[in-house]
Amino acid sequence: MSESLKVDRNSMKSAATVFAQNWSDNSTRSQVARFLESFIRQAATHTTAWCVNLRKDREIRLNVGPVLLLQLTSQEIWFCAVGESIPFLPNWIDVKSQHGEIRYPKVPIPSRAYSVPAEGLADIPDSLRSAALSYVLQAAQKRQGRSTYWRSHSPGVLYFLDDFLGVHLPKTYSVFGDSP
């Protein structure tokens, strides 16, 4: 377990510190940031109920409603993907749910959970990346309104991603004009 860190959820500097501590290699940090960006864009395009959380244990999570879509730690990148199995995965990709069980009743589709080392993100097969983004889409289409975790939303992570990647992400889950 990683050591606890005082974080300011609104601070780009806190998010930058967590990214640098978790992934010291700039190439790996960039891959993690791009992976998170793709999940955020998919969620924010289809729902207002998404939320990114920067936690004091240096973990970063993305949820839609109560559904955990992505969990980033220094040891692994965990995510769900649609489908019962994806053939020919490299052996460094860990299938966390061997039986294709449905992880969340709110997204009642066959799915599996996977984890990969952060250094391997660039080499994830396109089929798995697409299946993961399809899971985000399915979760997003089933939930509107406010995120379950809106009180712990961390716009500092979004400010960091904007600066680090040179992109512009929505800073709140309320991208359609509703306020929490």
Structure, explained:
- This protein has 180 residues and is of the alpha+beta class.
- It has one domain.
- Helices cover 33% and strands 17% of the residues.
- It is built from four helices and six strands.
- The protein has helices at 12-22, 26-46, 126-141, 155-165; strands spanning 50-54, 60-64, 67-72, 77-82, 94-95, 111-116.
- A six-stranded antiparallel sheet has the order 1-2-3-4-6-5.
- β3 (67-72) and β4 (77-82) form a beta hairpin.
- α1 (12-22) packs across α4 (155-165) and α2 runs parallel beside α3.
- The chain is globular and about 40 Å long.
Search tags:
180 residues, alpha+beta, six-stranded antiparallel beta sheet, 4 helices, 33% helix, globular
Q: Total number of helical segments? A: 4
Number of β-strand runs: 6
The end-to-end distance, rounded to whole angstroms, is 33 Å
Give the biggest sheet.
Answer: 6 strands, antiparallel
What is the domain total for the residues? 1
Element order: H for helix, E for strand: HHEEEEEEHH
Beta-strand content: 15-25%
Q: Return the average pLDDT rounded to an integer.
A: 83
Radius of gyration: 15 Å
- Spatial shape: globular
